[in-house]
Give the backbone structure.
Amino acid sequence: MAGSPVAAVVSPLGQSVQEMSMNGNEPPPQYFLKENSIQPMDSFHPSDPIPIIDISLLSSSSSLSSKGGEEEELQKLKSTLTSWGCFQAVGHGISSSFLDKVREVGKQFFALSVEEKQKYSRATDGIEGYGNEPILSENQLQPVDQRKLQLWPENPNEFREVLDEDEYGAKVKIIMDVLFKAMAMSLNLEENRFSSQFGERAVMQTRFNFYPSCPRPDLVLGFKPYSDGSGITILLQNKEVEGLQVFKNDKWFRVPVIPHALVVNLGDQMQIMSNGIFKSAIHRVVSNSERMRISVAMFNEPEPDKEIGPVDALIDKKRPRLYRNVKN
């Protein structure tokens, strides 16, 4: 049961998920898993920890103690993305206090009345605004002349300022730029071979996810298993409540909370561009019976109508082309 500024999945009685949780209502049967019930959180596999990557060692502008440190981290990045497709990013340069500020504006938004949140409801055929589970994003950090600012909440007061490209958006974009270059270098490619496919007017989307407490976490997922359609997704987890899990080797692994780390998930577009060398991460969110959870995800996508496809240098007789070119 997930909310995304976002998300008010509506029950047959007209209540949002958040309202059902606040009222102590049981989730409707249509949300129950038809397969076996979900195992308790502590039954998942913590013994194979999600890799941790130090972004500062991947940045050409950082003061490395040695070239060997950068090369070692590049190889660690390559190994991680060919097996997990995700990692926890540290050394990213965003202060702990600012990450807490991003979390706080999301928390404040979801604490607003239903009537106030609905002022920013998305259109029936739109993807921006406050809505339900199928929504892909809340706000898009597009070129300024293309933004729908009427869907950017004015309440809480700091919401627009914190999310704008001069703040969180700009900081996350720097991280993504570093990662695109590092991923290319780890495969012995020119550093712009991946980033150039996104174009000069690439889109960044932001989604604030709200997962209320759920009385039946054994039967109801916060979000069903899926992989992101983006190039890279950067997720700011709830500081205290776990919920994210990653699928690897036919098992689900918990993604533990490292309060000021960022979770990086590789999306389907990077799997395509790498010709299947890198893997997009299949992940899901489990429910919590006692506590709500809020996370903030930022996705990057190519500019509209731009085609992406496998990099030519990654196609040969041993590894033939696995994907056709696609548009966003």
